[in-house]
Amino acid sequence: MTQAWPLVGRESERAEIEALLEDANARGVVIAGPAGVGKTHLARAIVAQEGASVVNVRATRAAGRVPLGAFAPFLPADLGGGDDGTRLRRAAAALESSFESDARPIVCIDDAHLLDPSSAALVFQLALDGKVFLLVVLRSDDDATGMLLELWKDELPRIDLRAFPEERTAEALEAALGGAVERATVHSLHEASGGNVLYLREFVAGLLDAKSLVQQGGLWRLVGPITSTPRLNELMTSRLRDLDETERLVLEVVALGEPCGAQQLEARGWADAQEALERRGLIVGERSGNRWRVRLAHPLYGEVARDQLTETRRRAIARGLAEAVADRGMRRRDDARRVALWLLDGGMTADPDVLLTAARDALFGADLATVARLARAALDAGAGAPAAHILGRALDGVGDNEQAESVLAAAEALADDPADRALLALARADNLFRGLGRAAESEAVLVAAERAVSDPVLRARIASQRAVQASFEGRTLDALALTMPLLESAEGVAFCEAALPASGAMRMLGRLDEAIALSERGLAARQALGPDVQAPATAVYLVSRSQSLLEYGRLEDAGRISRRGYDFCVRANFRDGIAWFAFAHGMVELYTGRLERAMRLARESAVVFGERAHAGARWAFVLLALAAAQRGDVLVAEAALADFDVEPPTPIRVSDCEADRARGWTAVARGEWVEGRALMRSAAARARADGLVLFEAHALFDHIRTGSFDPVADRFLELATLIDGPLMAAQAQALRAALDHDPAGLDAAADSAERCGAVLLAGECAATAAREHRVIGNARAASASSARSAAWIAQCEGARTPPLTTGEQNVVLSKREREVASLAADGLTNKAIAEALFVSTRTVENHLQRAYEKLGIRSRDELGDALERVAS
Which pLDDT score, from 0 to 100, does residue 241 have? Predict the structure, then answer.
């Protein structure tokens, strides 16, 4: 972490104040805002400018008890006799004459809301005199004296600082920590701090000390809970110090039970206390349907209130909350979960059915630790196989796979109901295969379960699980064979579960029209089941749909799905969803050419998959290596591949051919072209052996992008006929044009790629077209293609692929050509330009003609846009 917390997110306010400082007629400015928002930090940055004489006045409550107390160190001991007005003018004159520098003096008054009336009047007098620049810093959530109110109403402009939005919080964190910060960590710290800079700084300092904020995989991320610090506790405690007994009780109830129904608080005779807490800004009300609910205004108030509770009082409040909701009949969806947790916290025995319902409800949220706690309590209370099933899934979800196997295996052996045994077998097989890498055992569990049940729905679900595992192993045709019969007959959960591996298999075979259509059907069927059905999460269907749309060439649609899913999962802190959507959106960014963003998302996906001990981390490392190598970041690409190599053994091998492809790109980035191409051919051969048509095409086209068409071109064009969508068609179009040395065809391929959203491919095609145009002597067309390439590649965040680094791609105008073209674009005639530049009209015409040729345009009307495209 940097030594000083950086000043970020206040650029516009700082510029506004600096503009006032440069204005000889400006007399100052008021900076206002709530406590901790960064007012003093901004003011200090302003007065730290060299060349300014500064008097720093710090108002305090103690000094506020003495007339002119805050200014006493800067005034003569004796201001002489006379009335208050005379003494005030003498004080102002003494302060104004104390500056020695010729630079404009600044008087900075911090915490001005604490000034005594005489000091406030002196500030007002200084504003009227206008001989110094006043920088007045005060809290907007505190009462200011009447004189200060008049100051910003009539004399000085006022700038109000507000809490940071989340994107500014991200900037501040990354500047302070000196590196990228995981989005979910940004969101959590923003929520905890409320965008308040002081709170944010304190949280970060405390988390670093506790080693709960660490750098992993190139990202700063939380690995422990966000807890308060002694300084923050002091600040919060001071806000709670004057509460009476009832107000404190209501705050404690809200801290343990939020959101609390306002009517329930009022029914207990707490309406006045509730209103008092709202007036003090400690709690807030919000509407939820027809109900009015109460929450804490800031999470820190709850933390302080809970820390001050005795265990006896905590248990009593928890029991009271549980009884109050239970007495109303637990009508709302999350009531069972809330009641169960309060009962456990209160040391009371909960009904097994309540605990089981609570565990099921919690399973659809993001807090797997809470799921495990409730499920284990339900199992201990006698809830049987259903509780063991939920507990096993929760343990699998948090990466405790050995314990999950122990729980699920024991429950499966004891289960009497065939349906319970089948569901336990499904969860156990998934954990064995994905979590523990024991594919043979997993298959044996599924085969045994299939033989033991006759229910067609359960048999279909078991077949779907076998198909999922076949897909992960790269056995695409096996996966399709297992699922195709189900898609025609299965319904509900069985159809949903079969649709996932089937659409994935179709995607790998290049049958993208079918994959997209099936992903839509699967998603619709999953949504129709509702949120309470234990089936694959909606997020999984959205990821699958995004990937099929991406490969098809609908990059905008794919990015919209993956970006929205990612943002939703970040806000909900749904860790599995973050990992999947970060990978999916990173793939979109790779195809689009936004390589730096692709790298960042890949890192986040790898880290979150890693904390789950999920083999998806392998896919993320491959994505990171691909994006880094295409930017020329060899060290990053090599490190990502090294991380891939040390991942634990897993039967999930479907992406291994993609790893060879990434190795090929990394070799090319090192300048080892022969080795790189050999690795790409190896990746293609491996994909072909497994029937992974799409991955084979990826590797072959990358070989072509290196400028080498033999011996892969014919096979790629053969595959292109098998793969649906305009993106593959654009790639095939580019290859045919390159083989024919057809620059017009390459320009057309660039347009096709751009329509898909594949900006990097468009830039590569246009760059290759420019070279072909030059070969045949068409300088104008070469310049036009080169300009289009430059415009596209400018969006690609440092892309350095072979088509872009072979030859000069940028349009370069001489200084005189740019001058002439700029004046012509502004509407000047050739004669007027000649007079302005003291050259002949013929010279202007020659320069303008050469500029047209380099820019690839034909008239003045096109100059403005063309110059903007190539502006450096």
Answer: 79
